Amino acid sequence: MDVTDLRVALFTGNYNYVRDGANQALNRLVGYLLKRGASVRIYSPRTEKPAFPSVGKVINIPAIPLPGRAEYRAPVGLPLSARRDLKQFAPNMVHVASPEVLGHRAISWARNHDLPVVASVHTRFETYPRYYGLTFLEPLVLALLRRFYRRCDAIFAPSESMAQLLREQRMSYDVGIWTRGVDKEIFSPSRRDMEWRRSHGIADDEVAIGYLGRLVMEKGLDVFSDTVETLRRRGVKHRVLVVGEGPARDWFEKRLPDAAFVGHQMGPDLGRALASADLFFNPSVTETFGNVTLEAMASGLPVVAARATGSASLVREGVTGQLVAPGAIGSFADAIQRYIEDTDARRSAGEAGLRLSDRYGWDEVNQALVDSYLRIIRHRSTGAQPPRGPFG
């Protein structure tokens, strides 16, 4: 069996209606599978106005807006129309990308049809409650995630640090790596544009601290803004360049009144915006990989990030940037201040990050997952059964 024999059914609660790192990774995977001759069908909610053009055939799954976060939609199950399409498509591999109702129904469908099923882990959902005053729910969320992932033949994390955390959390008996790549045509130091910076009020002699991502509280916007305020109180000259949109934009703008907010950027414009910063600050602890961190490194920027899953596997401390204990405002400010005031250190870390980013090519990354698909299918063909833990 080879890649041309693969028939992959991909289930996800969001494939193209919000643009984020997880969706872009899934679209790149589908594109690679199709290029290699595999067959793919995506089962996901659709929208009349997608955030970006999606790859492959998408079968619509009914969904409702999430309360308080209407930009996201929650699938309500696996309808009869989708089950009919699955029967016609006849997949030999089921891939679930989000642990919600649709994902659970897809796993049940796969097990009922004796098909292998894998899950990719894209974010640390168990950390979300702490950003909305619901920290007491984290143990419950962990238990629900454990039940979900243990029903799969294998799960895949985007970084070794995340894979190790999943093992420690006893999420699965088979934890693999499906890391992420970076588009070097978009993210490159050559995209830096001083005139574009000036058009957004950033002077040539100002060091711009970059933020890239969805403007939502779980990205650590409070830590980011508190750190910037600490730098201001210290009298450290700087500017902030914010790239992205989201429901917390108004809140973030009030906290950073002197920042340049340039909104959502795509393609070459995104590469230009990121490369036009001077260093990158990522305080988030929710990422399993940190696509934006890798994109910043490919753009030649030193990175100051939280010592958490994702960034901990990318940033080489003292070489490509600095890792700081999550939430440690003073330590974040110390690390950023050093790069603002030491031009040589900033340049050296940026160059080191650029060299390291060369290791992450999308084709190599996606082929590793394809090889895992084939391994799992071969394992099942010998009569082996999926692992069944206490929640099986």
TrEMBL record:
Entry GO MF terms: glycosyltransferase activity
Keywords: Transferase
Keyword Coiled coil applies: no
Keyword Transferase: yes
Pfam families per UniProt: Glyco_trans_1_4 (PF13692), Glyco_transf_4 (PF13439)
Glycosyltransferase subfamily 4-like N-terminal domain segment(s): 20-185
PANTHER family named among the record's database cross-references: SULFOQUINOVOSYL TRANSFERASE SQD2
Protein name as it appears in the record: Glycosyltransferase involved in cell wall bisynthesis
Originating species: Sphingomonas jatrophae
